[in-house]
Amino acid sequence: MTLDAQTTVGDLVRQRPARSRVFEQLKIDYCCGGKLPLAQACAARKLDPQTVLTQLDAADAQEEQRQGQFVDADAMGLAQLADHIVTTHHAYLRAELPRLDYMTQRVLNAHGERDARLEQVREAFIALQDELTSHMLKEERILFPMVRQIETSTQAPAFHCGSLANPIAQMETEHELAGNALATMNEASDGYQPPDWACNTYRAMLDGLATLEADLHQHIHKENNVLFPKALAREAELGQKAGA
User: Do 85 and 219 touch, CB atoms closer than 8 A?
Assistant: First the structure.
């Protein structure tokens, strides 16, 4: 798809909603001002259209890479996988959650009377954001340091919480809560499909929520199905050596 400065800002976002991130950073209105050609919108903001086109092209490439980026989590060591989760998934959440917080509130304010389900989306998102914010801190400050320690230990460490199984059980419970919030948002938005009358901000919000869900599915899979079982197996192995 060739990017053209004469294409309207609204059409550029309609083609690929993830481009909304670029326009938000540049303070280009792609919603109410979406009928303006990109060149005209750039002139109003005293921006070089070619530079903006380059940014949009890079955003497209980044989105394609994110959609096709699947790592072999099972091939990683415990510390390597924990680091990957922090630098990839936690970093993504810290950048994206504030943006989606703003967008879900904005869309609710603008269209809540027309689509009552937006209140459900907003409430579920707030619950998810609150859960994930504390969840990431617990993993980074408590669980993941323990996971890194157990990989290099030659004997079972004496953890303050007893076994790794205890904090892992808590994390898995919180994963279920996150999954419930995702299910609510998905159902309330018809699988993140915008209604015909949806504005570009509405469409960008749904695109962002769909991406959030896909990323969280990968994130939780890497923890529940790979990192946690391998860490528990390592703990059991060290325990058996101590009892031998």
Answer: yes
